[in-house]
């Protein structure tokens, strides 16, 4: 996909985000596998990333404090900090799911022909 404007570039993330939201919904509805106690982190990893994207797209601090946050605490820096927090939630989901898989038999029963 080619993006000719900043908003088109941001919209490139819409399809993957919608797919992740659909899969998180399936997991919450128990249609997908994984540790049921990890569902908070499943939603947090996307919510925090979305928040970072919104802050980056709207240039929040720069609009309120023009010229004062050029070096630190600008929207781009805040977005990167939020991405690291989202990766932490992703790590939590992964470790909980791996522990869950070691406790639960994940194999589907084979059908007899």
From TrEMBL:
Main location group: membrane
Molecular functions (GO terms): metal ion binding; signaling receptor activity
InterPro entries for the chain: AdipoR/HlyIII-related (IPR004254)
Location of this chain's protein in the cell: Membrane
Keywords: Membrane, Metal-binding, Signal, Transmembrane, Transmembrane helix, Zinc
Any single Gene Ontology cellular-component annotation: membrane
Top-level lineage group: Eukaryota
Signal sequence bounds: 1-28
Pfam families the UniProt entry points to: HlyIII (PF03006)
The keyword Thylakoid is annotated on this UniProt entry: no
Positions of Zn(2+) binding: 76, 80
Membrane topology: Multi-pass membrane protein
Keyword Ubl conjugation in annotation: no
Family statement drawn from the similarity comment of this UniProt entry: Belongs to the ADIPOR family.
Identification of the protein by name: Progestin and adipoQ receptor family member 4
Species annotation: Euphydryas editha
């Amino acid at each position: 996909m080619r993006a000719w404007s900043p908003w088109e570039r941001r919209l490139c993330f819409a399809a993957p985000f919608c797919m992740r939201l659909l899969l998180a919904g399936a997991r919450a509805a128990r249609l997908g596998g994984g540790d049921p106690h990890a569902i908070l982190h499943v939603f947090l990893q996307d919510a925090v990333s979305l928040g970072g994207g919104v802050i980056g797209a709207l240039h929040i601090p720069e609009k309120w404090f023009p010229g004062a946050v050029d070096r630190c605490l600008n929207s781009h820096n805040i977005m990167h900090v939020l991405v690291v927090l989202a990766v932490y939630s992703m790590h939590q989901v992964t470790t909980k799911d791996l522990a869950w898989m070691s406790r639960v038999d994940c194999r589907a029963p084979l059908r007899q022909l």
